[in-house]
Amino acid sequence: MGWLRVFLQRTFGVVKHHMGTDQFGNKYYYIPEQRTWTGQTTRERRTVEPVKKKEYEYEAGHIPLEWEAWIRRKREDPPTIEEILNNEKYKELVKLRSKELYEKDKLQQAKEYEEGLVALPGHTQIKGHASAPFYGTNEPSEDPTSTAKSFQPGSWTPSDTNKRNP
């Protein structure tokens, strides 16, 4: 019976109310609760008809946050263009202020370094792996160089004789 409902909805269409369009061209629709001719009730839905139909073409930010909140039912009323544009201006203002603050902080740090109030960040040179520390020589020794706590492994090479035990 599900295939019949799908066929009829595709034939006669679903009642959609266009709620708005964002600055990217995405269209947003509200589909109210409906009763089918078979007596089934479909709940209300909020959908988006994207400009770019393929999923891999989308990136974060292609759907404005205000519209996404409306689709996810975090807000009742759809956003207006003025609201979206005001939020975009506010985001740009925050970016500009944070950049200015970053530059100001950078200058303050440089001044403190020059005055000697703050030490320069140290540069460490990491060699090897944490479980195999670097002891100063790159070449392994033929014999172990020490015993007990300061043991440093050496390398072993087999002798040239071809003696085998029978």
Automatic annotation (TrEMBL):
<dbReference type="GO" id="GO:0005739">
    <property type="term" value="C:mitochondrion"/>
</dbReference>
<dbReference type="GO" id="GO:0032981">
    <property type="term" value="P:mitochondrial respiratory chain complex I assembly"/>
</dbReference>
<dbReference type="InterPro" id="IPR007763">
    <property type="entry name" value="NDUFA12"/>
</dbReference>
<dbReference type="Pfam" id="PF05071">
    <property type="entry name" value="NDUFA12"/>
</dbReference>
<comment type="similarity">
    <text>Belongs to the complex I NDUFA12 subunit family.</text>
</comment>
<protein>
    <submittedName>
        <fullName>NADH dehydrogenase [ubiquinone] 1 alpha subcomplex assembly factor 2</fullName>
    </submittedName>
</protein>
<dbReference type="InterPro" id="IPR052618">
    <property type="entry name" value="ComplexI_NDUFA12"/>
</dbReference>
<feature type="compositionally biased region" description="Polar residues">
    <location>
        <begin position="143"/>
        <end position="160"/>
    </location>
</feature>
<feature type="region of interest" description="Disordered">
    <location>
        <begin position="127"/>
        <end position="166"/>
    </location>
</feature>
<dbReference type="GO" id="GO:0045271">
    <property type="term" value="C:respiratory chain complex I"/>
</dbReference>
